[in-house]
Write a sequence for this structure.
């Protein structure tokens, strides 16, 4: 293995160990639940970014969180399936709906696609309310079962504590990120980018643009539904307000402010978002205002997002250095 | 039965005209500035609250409050255009996110100041007139008349006045308009002023009928977009047509079936039109 | 052998007839130039053949099989590619990445394999990388390999467009005004490049305004005017064709 590759793997290993040890490191600070939510939201935000890579801003994203949450709840409470089945099935539900919807709506261009997804999410929320006998409407559904591992006659391990959820969420989050990484950094990621840059040129080179868009959309919605299912079984309570406008806005915020052209952008965005919301938790009504203002400022002044700052600093630094050198020689 | 239908028709007129006013604002902004303004609903809401504040808190006379609310919102629009939207140009993603972010900020601002509870607005006219057994409230009649006048005024403005012609020039070719001595930025500012003023006017007119709340803007926004798309993007005549078709569908749908159904109809409409009769909306060259 | 056959092609946009009763063919290996004054319908014909428009009437056959109404990616799969006006290339992607996209048809990797990885995936990626570099070499773009397309000097952008098209291993290449905006030196280079590609066995349909470029390199010429074919034949004959001259000069001039 080449030296730089080896050092890459070393760093990853170190990171992995750090992640494993976090619950010990932060115990007593009471922030483990914030970190858990961060992991959960990272999945949804990365998924949104994946969809946006093909040039479509998906406002229905929060709806797919709801789809995942409600289907998983239904499967576990009404059908009695264990969490470990509900999770992938919820993801699949999201993927199937996305597949069907995608073939229709992904033919529509940029801003109008956004409009369609806004309309869809509005209608979706109304439908959730309408079928409140099933969804529990505003009352919501309580006591959604937590995951458990049962080896008959030996033991049953129930995921009850924040620490146990930490590891569960860490695993799912890492698996999702790794899968998305592999996709984004190979043939698929490149083709998706090309589709966003110039879809007609890509099409004339043989790319079946619609199919690539639908697959991106479906994949993104799969992970989002997954994340919704995780949420339901973690918080154990969902209602029709949980996955509304504010959550959608938060996800969009994370992707845009974090840096949508960077793979790790959404991660930065979510960390920022959660930290902010923890900071202004006592002023809940001010939250949308704060996020909104930051979002607008970022778009106006740092459109590439926070993730672009390091390279910007580097560029600035490089410009400064030669000047210093010249002034030194002038004196000497 | 005929009376019921007539009643629904009156509601339709009122509803349609409010959609038309909003759709007109959206179309103007789309045509002149090439932006889908997702903050439009929030601006409408802001107009309602400004009017509410002037009328109910400051206790100012009805007409003064109304006119002032409209002007204030219009001026706010000018500021927004100059300091926020102009920086974005026509970068679509940025425009989407910014206008959406703006909507969130405004909604949150109003919730903080006024609380999230729906608030009633005092009406000016009370009483009804009866014609052919149909009861029409004077309030609604006034809305119909004023809205119709506003729409007519806008048509006149665009078609006959110098500024209106300048606006049309900019929608066709921004650069060429510049070469003719028109300042596209000034026109954008004017356009946004009008759009916001129209939204505020619509809010002022309907405030007394529907109570106001911070989230009141989303439905009109979606309906405005639907009306605009129904009637054909970029066409102000289309707004009127689209507004009426939508108004008919929704008021009949709401009364005879269900309000939720009405929303679903709107969504399905947008979808169908955008897919099958896009008029230049689809990404690829028309097939 | 007739590689491409166009029969009775008609395209109407509402009340406007852009192309009417257009019929022609291209022989395998030849270089056909399509010329005509502005608005003659050249781009419409272009878009019709490549699947970006679907015809109101008529048909297009490639290698004897009908391709009318197929979408552009399917048409690329059959062996027909096109180039684009400069502005619409992959601005924020590097030159190498752009050509890699051009090689899409060969480089497609199954979704699940892409996630799983493995030697077959790596092998394919290596193949595509080699092929893309070969094309860059052929087009003289190797030095710009990692440069973003939007930073590429203007003259090289056309080459990039051709390079992307070559990635699909086309049998027929349609070039959309490849030399517009170039000076005579650049034109000579570009046309030599195109002729070189033609000599490699790729049939070429060239749409262009620049008469001299077309006359000196094409085997045959096709002239469109008001959506109809008004002349077809060898360059020498076209230059003297009355109808052609009238079309370009508005009927005022006469050739002695």
């Amino acid at each position: 293995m080449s030296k730089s590759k080896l050092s890459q793997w070393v760093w990853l290993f170190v990171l992995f160990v750090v992640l494993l040890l976090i619950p010990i490191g932060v115990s007593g600070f009471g922030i483990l639940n914030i970190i858990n939510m961060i992991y959960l939201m990272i999945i949804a935000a990365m998924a949104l970014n994946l969809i946006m890579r093909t040039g479509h801003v998906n406002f229905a994203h929060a709806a797919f969180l709801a789809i995942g949450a409600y289907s998983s709840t239904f499967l576990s409470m009404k059908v009695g399936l264990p969490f470990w089945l509900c999770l992938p099935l919820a993801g699949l539900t999201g993927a199937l709906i996305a597949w069907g919807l995608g073939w229709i709506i992904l033919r529509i261009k940029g801003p109008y696609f956004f409009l369609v997804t806004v309309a869809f999410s509005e209608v979706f929320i109304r439908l959730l309310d309408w079928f409140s006998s099933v969804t529990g409407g505003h009352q919501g559904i309580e006591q959604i079962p937590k995951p458990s591992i049962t080896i008959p006659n030996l033991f049953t391990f129930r995921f009850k504590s924040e620490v146990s959820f930490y590891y569960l969420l860490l695993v799912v989050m890492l698996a999702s990120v790794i899968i998305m990484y592999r996709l984004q950094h190979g043939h698929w990621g490149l083709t998706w980018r090309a589709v966003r840059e110039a879809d007609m040129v890509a099409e004339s080179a043989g790319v079946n643009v619609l199919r690539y868009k639908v697959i991106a959309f479906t994949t993104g919605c799969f992970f989002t539904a997954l994340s919704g299912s995780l949420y339901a079984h973690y918080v154990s309570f969902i209602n029709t307000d949980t996955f509304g406008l504010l959550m959608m806005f938060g996800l969009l915020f994370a992707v845009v402010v974090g840096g949508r052209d960077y793979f790790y952008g959404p991660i930065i965005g979510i960390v920022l978002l959660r930290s902010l919301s923890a900071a202004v938790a006592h002023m809940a009504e001010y939250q949308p205002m704060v996020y909104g203002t930051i979002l607008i400022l970022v778009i106006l002044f740092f459109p590439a997002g926070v993730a672009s700052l390091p390279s910007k600093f580097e560029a600035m630094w490089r410009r400064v250095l030669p000047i210093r050198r010249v002034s030194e020689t002038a004196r000497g | 039965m005929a009376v019921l239908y007539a009643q629904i028709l009156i509601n339709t007129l009122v509803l349609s005209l409010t959609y038309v006013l909003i759709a007109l604002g959206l179309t103007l902004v789309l045509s002149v500035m090439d932006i889908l303004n997702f903050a439009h609903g929030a601006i409408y809401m802001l107009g309602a609250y400004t009017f509410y504040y002037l009328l109910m808190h400051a206790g100012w006379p009805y007409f003064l409050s109304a006119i002032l609310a409209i002007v204030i919102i219009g001026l706010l629009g000018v500021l927004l255009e100059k300091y926020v939207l102009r920086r974005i140009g026509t970068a679509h993603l940025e425009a989407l996110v910014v206008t959406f972010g703006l909507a969130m900020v405004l909604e949150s601002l109003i919730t903080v100041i006024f609380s999230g509870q729906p608030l009633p607005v005092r009406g000016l006219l009370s009483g009804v007139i009866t014609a052919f057994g149909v009861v029409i409230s004077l309030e609604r009649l006034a809305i119909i008349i004023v809205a119709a006048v506003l729409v007519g005024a806008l048509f006149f403005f665009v078609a006959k006045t110098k500024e209106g012609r300048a606006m049309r020039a900019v929608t066709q070719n921004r650069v060429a308009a510049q070469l003719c001595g028109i300042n596209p930025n000034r026109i954008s500012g004017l356009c946004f002023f009008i759009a916001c003023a129209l939204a505020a006017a619509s809010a002022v007119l309907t405030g007394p009928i529907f109570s106001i709340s911070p989230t009141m803007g989303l439905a009109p926004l979606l309906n405005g977009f639907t009306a605009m798309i129904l009637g054909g993007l970029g066409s102000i005549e289309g707004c009127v047509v689209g507004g009426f078709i939508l108004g008919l569908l929704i008021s009949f749908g709401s009364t005879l079936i269900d309000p939720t159904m009405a929303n679903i109809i709107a969504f399905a409409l947008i979808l169908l039109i955008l897919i099958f009769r896009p008029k230049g909306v689809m990404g690829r060259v028309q097939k | 052998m007739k590689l491409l056959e166009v029969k009775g092609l008609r395209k109407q946009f509402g009340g406007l007839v852009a192309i009417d009763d257009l019929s022609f063919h291209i022989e395998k290996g030849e270089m056909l130039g399509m010329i005509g004054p502005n608005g003659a319908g050249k781009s419409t014909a272009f878009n019709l053949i490549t699947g970006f428009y679907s015809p109101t009437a008529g048909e297009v056959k490639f290698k004897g099989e009908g391709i009318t109404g197929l979408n552009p990616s399917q048409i690329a799969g059959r062996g027909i590619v096109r180039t684009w006006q400069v502005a619409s290339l992959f601005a924020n992607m590097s030159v190498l990445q752009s050509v890699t996209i051009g090689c899409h048809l060969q480089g497609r990797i199954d979704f699940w394999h892409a996630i799983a990885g493995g030697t077959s995936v790596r092998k394919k990626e290596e193949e595509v990388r080699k092929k893309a570099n070969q094309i860059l070499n052929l087009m003289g773009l190797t030095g710009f390999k990692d440069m973003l397309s939007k930073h590429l000097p203007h003259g090289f952008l056309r080459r990039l467009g051709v390079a992307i098209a070559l990635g699909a291993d086309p049998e027929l290449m349609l070039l959309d005004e490849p030399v517009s905006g170039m000076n005579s030196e650049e034109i000579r280079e570009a046309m030599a490049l195109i002729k070189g590609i033609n000599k490699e066995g790729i049939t070429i349909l060239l749409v262009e305004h620049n008469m001299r470029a077309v006359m000196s390199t094409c085997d045959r010429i096709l002239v469109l005017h008001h959506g109809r074919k008004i002349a077809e034949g060898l360059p020498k004959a076209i230059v003297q064709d009355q109808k052609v001259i009238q079309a370009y000069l508005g009927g005022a001039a006469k050739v002695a």
In short: The first helix of chain C runs from residue 42 to 49.
